[in-house]
Amino acid sequence: MRVRQLWLGFRSWLLDWRSHGLTLLMVMLIYTGIHLWQTRHLPAGTAPAFSAPLASPHAISRIDLEPWRTAHPGRAMALHFWAEWCPICRLEEDSISAVQRDWPVLGVAMQSGDAARVQAVLNQRGLAWQTAIDTDGSITRRYGLSSVPAFIVLNSQGNIRFAEIGYISETGMRLRLWWAQNF
After folding, report:
1. In the chain, where does DSSP find H-type helix?
2. From CA 101, how far away is CA 123, in angstroms rounded?
3. Which one of 37, 65, 98, 99 has the fewest CB atoms closer than 10 angstroms to its CB?
4. 86 with 148: CB under 8 angstroms?
């Protein structure tokens, strides 16, 4: 009798697990579909080059992607597209700051004002980010992005390895950078 009860309990758990597994599979398929739709316009291969004003209290007033990238030889790096007015970007600020301590991350401030305005925002929020200014959204469009935040991971050769649109956790950022660095 006891063995029968254990078997029925295990069978019930197994049927529930299948149901939960199917639900999990559906969620993963929906997430993958949304991700593929959001990133459908992103370029593949080498990251598009750009030159832009730099929000900086230092003497450097412009940044070019290629020299910035080659200043970190053999390293994976990221481009973080954000906007001063974006509430989801605000949620990611601490994660970006933490990741930036260990990996090269270049911010791209989309439609957030001129260099002085963006630097004031960075100072107000206590963010020590190196940030290119994309006042008209042309850099963002060159990357096929229509919304922020976006996190683009480049391998050491400057090829796009990962592109995420929307909120991404610090762990997710670090794992993508690590993967691009090592594989």
Report:
1. 2-38, 65-70, 87-100, 115-125, 138-142, 170-182
2. 17
3. 37
4. yes
- Residues whose CB falls within 8 Å of the CB of residue 42, separated by 6 or more in sequence, listed in order: 143, 144, 145, 152, 160, 163
Summarize pLDDT for 110-124 with one digit per residue, the tens: 999 999 999 999 999
Tell me the CA distances in angstroms from 16 to 5, 11, 19, 162, one per residue in order: 17, 9, 5, 35
Q: Are 100 and 173 in contact (CB under 8 A)?
A: no
Q: What does the pLDDT read at residue 60?
A: 64
Would the pLDDT of 173 be above 90?
Answer: yes
Asked if 180 and 153 touch (Cβ cutoff 8 Å), the reply is yes
Of 21-25, 73-77, 175-179, the least confident = 21-25
Tokens of 1: 């009798």
- 3-class DSSP assignment, residue 150: strand
DSSP class of residue 117?
H
